[in-house]
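> call design_seq(struct)
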């Protein structure tokens, strides 16, 4: 397929340059990049709207806390998110992230990251500066923190649906909602609405990779990770658009876990709050444009995830966030997030035949990496 800079004529017939299976943020990001590079695109999605991991998260594009090759991809993704926000018109403030340190051990990790990345990328904050961003009643244990200016925010409830709405109104793009994929052969996708043909097929179905290609999922040991999350009205006067991360976040993101002091943070948290480590907690919160706070989260892994949630887990997470803010939070909604996970890699990119490639982010950084992965994929067509 040759890259073209102008749009195609309106779709007609069954053949397109590109078929994308899955209208989550990974699939939609690929469609956005393909459309603006002049390719005709057909998206096939079994649901009637985005309904999976892409709408159940914090809406936090966690750029700075990535590491290695994923750090470069994250920064490239940041550019894509901003381009999409400008084109589509959705909310995407360059609000950064605040990382709260409540012990000298946690603060040491932030100092180490700042030294490695530079003071412009990881801006150390005093305890007073952290409290000024959160609340005058914020946890008195706060001893400092860091501001990560490169991080972005979007509203997870609306970003993917808005991108999908915009795409299906663009020349050369069609989305088939409520359409099930039955089989994929070289350049041909057999669906519940008939056969479609393309020069290239991208399978972007996240944790459902095992439904279409179980042998690939088994090779990478892809399973499901389920999260417990909640929502509450923000405290009066709270208007921070930045994501807020904590010491538990330092046990989960590679930018932190590769620091010399990361193991000490994990041991310290386990010493005073072992339940947070046992539940795989990432105690963090983000504010939506409507003034609600997204709160979470815990992590449990398995091939099949049961529907039952232990109330004590959500209660514990919410109480920890309330302690940080110095207020009681009144939960108005709970839900189960879910995404693909692999112990081998955070990204599966597998050529299945000469025209078909499976792309699944197998960790909790799909929103973060989506547009960077898409730019790299489309750039190679």
């Amino acid at each position: 397929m040759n890259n073209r800079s102008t749009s195609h004529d309106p779709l007609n017939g069954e053949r397109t340059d590109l078929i994308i299976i899955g209208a989550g943020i990974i699939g939609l990001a690929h469609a956005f990049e393909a459309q603006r590079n002049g390719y005709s695109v057909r998206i096939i999605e079994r649901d009637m709207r985005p309904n999976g991991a892409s709408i159940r998260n914090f809406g936090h594009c966690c750029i700075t806390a990535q590491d290695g090759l994923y750090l470069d991809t994250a920064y490239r993704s940041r550019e894509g998110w901003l381009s999409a926000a400008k084109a589509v018109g959705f909310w995407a403030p360059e609000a950064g992230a605040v990382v709260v340190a409540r012990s000298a051990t946690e603060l040491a990790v932030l100092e180490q990251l700042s030294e490695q990345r530079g003071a412009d990328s990881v801006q150390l904050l005093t305890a007073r500066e952290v409290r000024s961003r959160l609340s005058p009643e914020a946890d008195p244990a706060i001893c400092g923190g860091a501001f990560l200016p490169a991080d972005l925010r979007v509203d997870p409830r609306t970003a993917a649906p808005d991108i999908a709405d915009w795409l299906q109104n663009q020349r050369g793009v069609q989305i088939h909602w409520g359409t099930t994929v039955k089989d994929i052969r070289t350049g041909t996708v057999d669906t519940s609405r008939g056969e479609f043909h393309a020069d290239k097929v991208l399978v972007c179905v996240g944790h459902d990779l095992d439904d279409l290609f179980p042998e690939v999922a088994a090779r990478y040991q892809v399973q499901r990770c389920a999260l417990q999350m909640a929502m509450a009205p923000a405290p009066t006067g709270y208007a921070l658009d930045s994501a807020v991360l904590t010491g538990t976040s330092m046990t989960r993101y590679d930018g932190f876990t590769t620091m010399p002091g990361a193991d000490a943070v994990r041991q310290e948290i386990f010493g005073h709050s072992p339940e947070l480590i046992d539940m795989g907690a990432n105690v963090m919160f983000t504010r939506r444009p409507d003034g609600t706070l997204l709160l979470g989260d815990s992590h449990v892994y398995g091939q099949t995830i049961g529907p039952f949630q232990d109330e004590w887990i959500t209660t514990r997470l919410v109480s920890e966030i309330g302690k940080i803010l110095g207020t009681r939070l009144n939960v108005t909604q709970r839900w189960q997030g879910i995404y693909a996970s692999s112990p081998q890699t955070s990204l599966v990119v597998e050529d299945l035949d000469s025209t078909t490639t499976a792309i699944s982010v197998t960790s909790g950084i799909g929103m973060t990496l989506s547009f960077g992965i898409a730019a790299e994929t489309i750039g190679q067509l």
